[in-house]
Amino acid sequence: MKIAFATTDRVNVDAHFGWAQEIDVYEISASGYNFVETLKFDDKSKKVEVETKQDESTIKTNKDSESDDKVAAKLEALADCAIVYVASIGGIPAAKLIKQGVMPVRPHSEQEDIAFILNKLVQTLQGNPPPWLRKALQK
Questions:
Q1: What is the pLDDT, as a whole number, of residue 56?
Q2: What are phi and psi of 21, to 5 degrees?
Q3: 77 has pLDDT over 90
Q4: How far apart are CA 70 and CA 98, in angstroms?
Q5: Which of 1, 53, 62, 76 measures 20 to 30 Å from 32, CA to CA?
Q6: What secondary structure letter does DSSP report for 8?
Q7: Measured between alpha carbons, how far is 114 from 98 in angstroms, rounded to an integer?
């Protein structure tokens, strides 16, 4: 099963899902874990000019599409993951992840060590995992 971590330093889960520029992916099983890859996302702000017609005039406004673009790119990249650990996440992106079959999880503290989480997950998989984790394992 693949597990992802939103991180700024590749050591801690310390990045907000929407703003994460890097997400580390690990393969995990009851026998251990292995690093798979680092997913990198563009941090450039994306501004889209939107034209709205009202009466006979056209009104041009700048719409910040950054959050939609960032979420869509991350959803696509995380499609084969079962769990993504994030420091924080908005309600809509969390719902989109869950709909896709990826469980978003916030660690107990704002900066949780990735290796600690991985080791705890391996121990949990060797014992009796909770129902949400058993479901994630079936993915």
A1: 54
A2: -95, -20
A3: yes
A4: 17
A5: 76
A6: S
A7: 21
